[in-house]
TrEMBL record:
InterPro entries found in the cross-reference section: HTH-type_LysR_regulators, LysR_HTH_N, LysR_subst-bd, WH-like_DNA-bd_sf, WH_DNA-bd_sf
Protein name: Putative HTH-type transcriptional regulator LrrA
MF (Gene Ontology): DNA binding; DNA-binding transcription factor activity
Entry superkingdom: Bacteria
Residues annotated as domain HTH lysR-type: 9-66
One GO CC term on file: cytosol
Organism: Hyella patelloides LEGE 07179
Gene this chain is encoded by: lrrA
Lineage: Bacteria, Bacillati, Cyanobacteriota, Cyanophyceae, Pleurocapsales
């Protein structure tokens, strides 16, 4: 008889087995574990192959454990609990059972990127507090880092060599057009864009300055008829037919259904990154938050819609 090589048993397989035992369905278990249904099926099949026994009886509407599966589920729960206790001991030794992480971010990244990272971090380190400050401009985020008022910042890349950074997301700039705009094209020409009345942030705002610089680099001048300080105001004014606007997708979300979305004549993307002050002494809590951020998978920016 071939013995089981213990190194082949994975905690992911045990978690999959326990989840299916708890929820009774592969789909619900996959949802709880935040993996695909094919991924959880593969985990169970490889576990059964390795153990050489059937652990589950699969029905159309429900899945139940075999007699030996019930016993192994109980032992799997004990193993996972022991692993949590080991991790807890290690966190205590590393000073991860308390403290605070100060995070600064510009508003759209705080709204659509940070929540997922914070949720994963809090699930692992519930005793560490997060202090979040939101800013209208990424330059204010970087100033928070320079003045030591924040440990971690979300900013645009590239930045200065005073900061150590990691790319986390690429966000495309879009043209939002009012319901009255008639065109089946998904991308505007320069002539269309520059002739249309635009509602924009002030050019002094870094995000808007990038747009103007991009257009001028191709010899184009935008027709700005109105400026406002809030992304949501721009979107609502476009929805009311007062003009068009150009903004990153994250800043535009949620985009009303009656607004037409087009791409720029020449695409423009902002690269968003996590930043810390270079060569600064960071606490274990800050390092743990950075590690969590590097593990989070953000959904890619969606393609423009008509």
């Amino acid at each position: 008889m071939t013995s089981i090589y213990q190194g082949r048993l994975k905690t992911s397989q045990l978690r999959a087995l326990v989840a299916i035992a708890e929820y009774g369905k592969f789909g619900e278990a996959a949802l709880q574990l935040e993996i695909s249904q094919s991924g959880i099926s593969h985990a169970i099949s490889t576990l059964e192959d390795e153990l050489g026994v059937s652990l589950l009886v699969r029905h159309h509407q429900h899945t139940r454990c075999t007699p030996v599966g019930k016993e192994i589920v109980q032992q799997a729960r004990q193993i996972l609990q022991l692993l949590e206790q080991i991790e807890e001991k290690a966190n205590q030794a590393k000073g991860l059972n308390g403290g605070i992480v100060r995070v600064a971010s510009f508003r759209s990244a705080a709204t659509y990127l940070l929540p997922k990272a914070i949720a994963q971090f809090r699930s692992k380190f519930p005793d560490i507090s997060i202090r979040l400050t939101e800013h209208n401009d990424y330059k204010d985020v970087e100033q928070m880092l320079y003045s030591n008022d924040a440990d971690i910042g979300l900013t645009y890349l590239p930045t200065t060599d005073k900061l150590e950074t990691w790319e986390i997301y690429r966000d495309e700039y879009l043209v939002l057009l009012p319901p009255t705009f008639k065109s089946s094209e998904s991308q505007l020409t320069w002539e269309q864009l520059c002739s249309y009345p635009l509602i924009m942030l002030p050019e002094s705002h870094s995000c808007c300055a990038r747009i103007h610089t991009h257009c001028r680099s191709f010899g184009q001048k935008l027709n700005v008829i109105l400026t406002t300080n809030e992304d949501s105001t721009q979107v609502n004014m476009v929805a009311q037919g007062l003009g068009a606007t150009i903004m990153p997708r994250l800043a535009a979300e949620p985009i009303p259904d009656n607004i037409k979305v087009c791409g720029l004549p020449i695409p423009l993307t902002r690269v968003i990154g996590v930043a810390v002050l270079a060569n600064a002494l960071q606490t274990p809590a800050v390092f743990a938050f950075l590690e969590t951020f590097q593990q989070v998978k953000f959904a890619p920016s969606r393609n423009s819609k008509n």
